[in-house]
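Changelog note: in this version the structure field was regenerated for every chain. One regenerated record is shown below for reference.
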Amino acid sequence: MNIDALRNKVNSQGYPSPLRMLVVIAVSIFATEFAIMIFFIYFPLDDIKETLIDASTLVTIITPILYYYFYRPFLHYTGDLKSAEDELLQFATAIDQGMEITLLTDNAGKIVYINPAGLAVTRGTWDKTVGRFARDLMVGRGENDLYAKLASAVATGAGWEGEFGHQNEDGRPFHGYCRISGVKDGTGANRNYLFVGQDITAEKQAMMERDTREAELRDSEKRWRMLVDMAPDPIIVHDGKKIIYANKAVADMMGTKEIADIVGQSLARFVLPVSMQNVEARIKAMLETGQPQPAIEHKVKKINGETIDIDATASPIVYDGKPAFQIFMRDITKRKIEEAELKSALETAEDATKLKDKFVSLVSHDLREPLTAILGFSSLIKTQEGESFSPTTLSYLDNIQYAGKRIGTIAEDLLGTAMIRKGRINPKLQFINAQSVVSDAISTLDFKAKNKGVTLINNVPSHLRLRADKTLLTQVVQNLLGNAVKFSKKGSAITIYSPEARISTLAVADNGVGIPSNIVPGLFKYDVKTTTLDTDGEVGTGLGLPFAYEIMSAHKGDLTVETSENGSTFFATMPDVKPFVLLVEDHQSMTRLVSYFLGTMRVEVRTAPNGAEAMDIIAEKVPDLIITDLNMPVMNGFDLIRKLKGSEATAQVPVLVLTNAGKDEREAVMQMGAYDFISKFSVESDLVLRVRRIIN
């Protein structure tokens, strides 16, 4: 809206002057009345003629004059005023709905108008804001002279532009950016003051936070420099092209007193070509991922050309406001030399161990044949010629047989130890009945125990099952029982049992002489001599317990001892493993039924609807028992058994066939290697019995 054009237009429509109006009216009346008199001269109107003429003259003259000089200008003035009001209303609406803060004051600075945007920033209301001084909204604590400065600038006609700060009605600080100018009337004098501004609180807060972060970053960098300068480890900063910082430790490591010899150089100046490719790859990885790079070994060249080995880690940082890489280094040359020496010593020791194991194996094997001959012929001589020998000669023969048997025991222990240490004995794991293992061991040693007056008691529960190699576990039990018999007194007892608090454990307890406390720590070690005299004055080889310990370790088990002057108890503990049973059956009802009965036993059960999916499960974990149907889709039971028995890994896994097939099919699967079969009609009565027989 052009305010000046509107003002000029209104002023141009002003009323005529009084003198001008009198002259115009007088001339108009004279002319009009003269014309009417001529017109009415022919009409005999007598007395009223003059009155009519005067009235007609006045009406004729005054009406146009009033229209032209009064009514027409008034109509134009009213229309322009209405147009101006409409334009002013649009202008006021635009200000009222504007996003900028708009505030109008009188000459004294009192607020006469504030738009909603201003109220939103100040958190005030119209009633509480209008009538207040503008400085109350603009001047904050410590800025009392701001309003005076801006008022002075506005009064001179220069206007004012700048920032101000205060608190809104909620007590929260706000910041504004404002332009102030005077609103002049028609004479050019200031009538009001107009404030137009923006809320810059968020921008100011962001700037303050940025300044705070920058200050913290400067402080952090200052502390970083101080710490890095004092750090004992060499540290450099690299900008991707050259070294831009190095601490004193770097100069020391590189054999120079001047850090300037390092800073400004490229890494290629120091890193040997054999390591440079790795360095470039690590820099590229940090640029792409922004992630630190782990320690890696490099070969670098010192200032004097000497080559050293370093261990370096790198991480991205900001240095002087720019992205860079911080590299921590450590001279590992001495460590590398020590590692090489240690590796050489280890290889020498391993060669010596291999030679020793080979020697032990050869000796133990080569001793068997002559020992067998010595024991056999000495026994034959004693049997056939014993009556003709003197008691002294017979005692010599007894000594020969005793020494031969002792050498035989040593040879067996040496051979077993060598085989374990060379990894030639791999336990063939299966679920076995622990009570039967103990019974077998007792039967072997029962004659020796009875001759010494020692009682062997088997208190192992019949339901205890262990997952182990039966032959190896029997050797462990025999060794523990044999030692217990040796160190037990006449009339004592040795008890083998399973402790309630220790799952999958066999305990051998005697009430013999006990084990000295200084011997216990090395009891299961080959390289520690722990042999002592037994109750009959005999000395063992000292290899039995380490051998038993190796067997338990091969089973991922453990062998421990508790001892006192009243006897000792050895604990052989196997891993607690549930039998894994794989059920292969395509009918859901039969699967649920068999799974229910298997659930009454302590077993892990998995199911497969056909042989193909069963083989996938077996590839993950070999079962201890497979129960399978014969007629199934994809892969039937016949093909499954054929695959199982054709693989070394699964050939020994017992397969229980679940079928209603006839005699010919049953004989066929038994010939293929199936363990047994169960009729589907007798699952309830036969399944649990057959499964327990296998896994126990």
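Spot check on this record: The mean pLDDT is 77. The CA atoms of residues 477 and 524 lie 15 Å apart.
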